[in-house]
Amino acid sequence: MTANFTLNKTLEAMEIYTSKAIANKAAQMSDVMNLSFGEPEFGPPEFLQPLIEQQGLNWEVFMYSVKGYEQPKGSPMLRQAIANWYQQHYGLTIDPEREIMVTHGGVEAINLAIQCTTQEHQGVIVCHPSYMLYERVVTALNRKPVTLNRPLGEAEYHSALESVQQNTALQQAGVMIVNSPENPSGYMLNAQDWDAVAEFTQQHGIWLIHDEVYDVMAYAERHQPALRHPELRENTIMINSFSKKFGLPGLRIGWMVANEQVINMAAKLHDYFYLGVNKQYEQIATLILREPRMNVWLNEVVVKLKTRMERAINMLNSARGYQWTRQPRGAMFLFPDVSALYARLPVRWQKCSYTIGECVAEYLLHEKGVAVVPGYVYGENSANHIRIVLCTTDEVFDRALHQLTH
Predict the structure, then answer these.
(1) d(CA 358, CA 292)
(2) Is 3 helix (H, G, I), strand (E, B) or coil?
(3) Which one-letter DSSP state was computed for residue 109?
(4) Distance, CA of 351 to chain centre
(5) Which parts of 242-319 fold into alpha helices (H)?
C-alpha cells in the first residue's frame, strides 16, 4: 500500500509571487515592455567599478570570505557604515554593536522581525494598500494578517487608526508593519500619521516594523525614519537594504535596526536559519556606503524618478482613463485607479477576470505590449488599480508610455 505523502497545506494554498510571475510571462512574449517588476536599471554607478574590483573582488577578500562563517550580527565594519548612514542622513545615533544586524536582504529582516515580536497565530497588522510580500510572509509564518484599510487623504494612518480604536483584532496584534515611502502607492507618513502610530502601538503594546527600503526616494518631503519619533524608540524595528536605492537586488544584503533585546534574538534565530550572510558581499556593501560620491549619485537617481513620475502622471491623465487618487510622494512606483479605462475596454477584456485591475492589466499586456501588476495583490481596497514601475531603462519607459497613450 502506497503511503500518502503530503506537503505544507498553508504554502500549497498561497499564490505565487505575482510581480515575478508577470515579469516571467512578459519575458516569454516578444516585444513586451516590462513595467511590472522592480529591478532598478540605474545602479550601481560606473565610478564604483575600480573600487569594487580592487577592494571587493580580489583574491584576498575572496579567500577571507569563503573560509569562514560570518558572525550572527554581521560584519562590524558594515554595521559601523550603516550607523554612519543614519547619522549623516537623519541625525540618528545608533549603536552599531548592539542595535544593528546585517541580514540576507530586507526580506530576511522582515521575516526575523515578525518571528521575534509575535507568537504563533497572533495578529500582524498589515496596512492596505501594502507590499504583496507582507501578508504572504505572515501567513507562511503561521501568524494572522490583520488588515488596516487606509482611507484616501493627507493623514491616512491617523484617519484609519482613529476610526478603529475599538477593533479587538488590531489591539491584540503583536506587531504593525508600515512601509514608508510605500510600495505600491508612493505614500509617505506625515507627522500626524507618526503621532497616531506611536500612540496606538504604545497604548496596546504593539511592536512597529518600519520598512524604509525606499528611504532616499522621497519627492514631496524628507523621509522620516520611525526611530526619529520620540515615542517609538523602544518598540520600533527598522528594515532597510541595498536592493532598491543602490540598484543591487542580487547582492542580497539588508539590515535591521532595533533595540539590543530584539537584535540579540534575531541574531540567534538568524544563526539557526542561515548561519551567516555572504562576507564578500558585505565587503562590497561597506565600500558602497563609505563612498562619498554616492550621495550625489543617489540625488540624481531621485531626480530622474521624480521626472518620470511627473511626466507619466501628465500623460496618463483622466482623459485617458487614469485617476491619481494618491499622488506618489516617494518610492519608484505609480498606482493609478483605472476604473475609467476599464469602462472603455472592449467587452471581451472586461469579462476576462474578477477585478478591474486584472482586466486592465491583461488588456495592456496583450493589446499594448506593456506588463503591469493588477492592484488586488496589494489589498482589496486596491482592486481598481494597477502598479507601474519607474525604474526601467529610458528606452523601455519611453516606449511603454507611448503605447499607453496611443
Answers:
(1) 44
(2) coil
(3) H
(4) 31
(5) 260-273, 279-290, 294-315
The helix/strand/coil state of 89 is helix
Is residue 99 helix, strand or coil?
A: coil
Q: How far apart are CA 398 and CA 376, in angstroms?
A: 26
Among candidates 382, 400, 383, 404, which has minimal Cα distance to 326? 382
- pTM over 0.85? The answer is yes
Q: How far, in Å, CA of 391 to CA of 370, rounded?
A: 14
Using DSSP's 3-state secondary structure scheme, residue 120 falls into coil
CA dist list (Å): 267 to 71, 98, 290:
9, 11, 24
Residue 201 and residue 395: Cα distance in Å, rounded? 45
Quote the CA–CA distance of 95 and 85 in Å, as a whole number: 12
Distance CA 366, CA 377 (A): 20
Cell numbers 520620540 correspond to what residue?
230
What distance in Å separates the CA atoms of residue 174 and residue 125, rounded to the nearest whole number? 8
The string of DSSP letters for 7-32 reads --HHHHHSPP-HHHHHHHHHHTSTT-
pLDDT band at 19 (very low <50, low <70, confident <90, very high): low
Closest CA to 13 of 147, 140, 114: 140
pLDDT one-digit tens code per residue, 280-301: 999 999 999 999 999 999 999 9
pLDDT tens-digit readout, 114-132? 999 999 999 999 999 999 9
Specify the amino acid at residue 83: A
Residues 6+ apart with CB under 8 A from 272: none
227 in Cβ contact with 214 (< 8 Å): no
The alpha carbon of 86 is separated from its chain's Cα centroid by a whole number of angstroms, namely 19
CB-count burial class (<10 Å; 0-12, 13-18, 19+) for 384:
buried
240's enclosing H/E stretch is: strand 236-241
